[in-house]
């Protein structure tokens, strides 16, 4: 079963696990994951199709929303093969190299989401603080450039991870604690010097989540300052209402990340099921919630879907 590479003590295959303590109810767990994937993939495809179809949505805000939907599709499709294999078909093995590829894409899409949320906060900042120059600042060329910068930043910072893992021997077993591959999970079964992996991992987290969240908070501080300067209470409410969807998306993304970090830092003896469930929330909830949030809270998206349903 192990099939080691003799030179590096790397298992040919790694063993994935389900959710500890819920082995007897994995049929229900499989159903829940299938529903999550159905909502995530269907909802994000619907948002993309609507933005492409409706010329009224060919605006910077909805271009950024399309980027978010594309990225959420990437997150969902990255985890889908091994999660469905684990819970639906009881196939729990993944090749070592395939695991590294999945790890790279999961982390890359997660870090890209943070960058896209930052770009969306800049969009709201310009729309509220400098509305007269909105269309001249956020041109199509600049939006494409911002998207490519987010992609390049995530790809370049995450590219060393598979090679840093590949150099390590694995002598603590081949059983991972999730139904997909994550860098921290692989570090738990690696032996040898993992300081470089941990230090570089911390650098990447600070360089992405830390920097992005700081600038998102700064942008909203400036937005709040601009809104409070508006004399009309009705105009204040209208301006803030355009940010509600984005604020909900930011909370859906960052709250699970903060919760996972707090549990790892202050509740190290937490039952394994807690760590697994929080990791699942971090990966599966934002791609599912984002299309729902924007469909419910954004009038133009809601109107576009109603128009399509009325025609059909």
Automatic annotation (TrEMBL):
PROSITE patterns associated with the record: G_PROTEIN_RECEP_F1_1, G_PROTEIN_RECEP_F1_2
GO cellular component, as recorded: plasma membrane
InterPro entries: GPCR_Rhodpsn (IPR000276), GPCR_Rhodpsn_7TM (IPR017452), Olfact_rcpt (IPR000725), OR51/52/56-like (IPR050402)
Regions crossing the membrane: 28-51, 63-84, 104-122, 143-165, 199-223, 244-267, 273-293
Species for this entry: Vombatus ursinus
Domain G-protein coupled receptors family 1 profile, first and last residues per copy: 43-294
GO biological process: cellular response to lipid
Name of the protein this chain belongs to: Olfactory receptor
Membrane topology of this protein: Multi-pass membrane protein
Family: Belongs to the G-protein coupled receptor 1 family.
């Amino acid at each position: 079963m192990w099939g080691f590479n003799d030179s590096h003590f790397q298992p040919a295959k790694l063993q994935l696990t389900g959710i500890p303590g819920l082995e007897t109810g994995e049929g229900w767990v499989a159903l829940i994951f299938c529903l999550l994937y159905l909502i995530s993939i269907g909802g994000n495809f619907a948002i993309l199709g609507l933005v492409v179809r409706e010329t009224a949505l060919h605006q910077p805000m909805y271009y950024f929303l399309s980027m978010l939907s594309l990225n959420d599709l990437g997150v969902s499709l990255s985890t889908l093969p091994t999660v469905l294999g684990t819970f639906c078909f009881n196939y729990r093995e993944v090749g070592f190299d395939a695991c590294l590829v999945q790890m790279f894409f999961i982390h890359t899409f997660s870090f890209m989401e943070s960058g896209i949320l930052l770009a969306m906060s800049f969009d709201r900042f310009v729309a509220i603080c400098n509305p007269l120059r909105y269309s001249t600042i956020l041109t199509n060329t600049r939006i494409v450039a911002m998207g490519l910068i987010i992609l390049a930043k995530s790809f370049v910072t995450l590219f060393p991870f598979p090679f840093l893992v590949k150099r390590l021997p694995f002598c603590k077993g081949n059983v991972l604690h999730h139904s997909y591959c994550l860098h921290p999970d692989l570090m738990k079964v690696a032996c040898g010097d993992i300081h470089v992996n941990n230090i570089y991992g911390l650098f990447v987290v600070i360089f992405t989540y830390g920097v992005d969240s700081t600038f998102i908070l700064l942008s909203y501080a400036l937005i709040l300052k601009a809104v409070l300067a508006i004399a009309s209470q009705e105009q204040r409410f209208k301006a803030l209402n355009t940010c509600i969807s984005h604020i909900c998306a930011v909370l859906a993304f960052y709250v699970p990340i903060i919760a996972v970090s707090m549990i790892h830092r202050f509740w190290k003896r937490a039952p394994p099921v807690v760590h697994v469930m929080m990791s699942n929330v971090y990966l599966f909830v934002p791609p599912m919630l984002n299309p729902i949030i924007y469909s419910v809270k954004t009038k133009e998206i809601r109107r576009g879907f109603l128009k399509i349903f009325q025609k059909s």
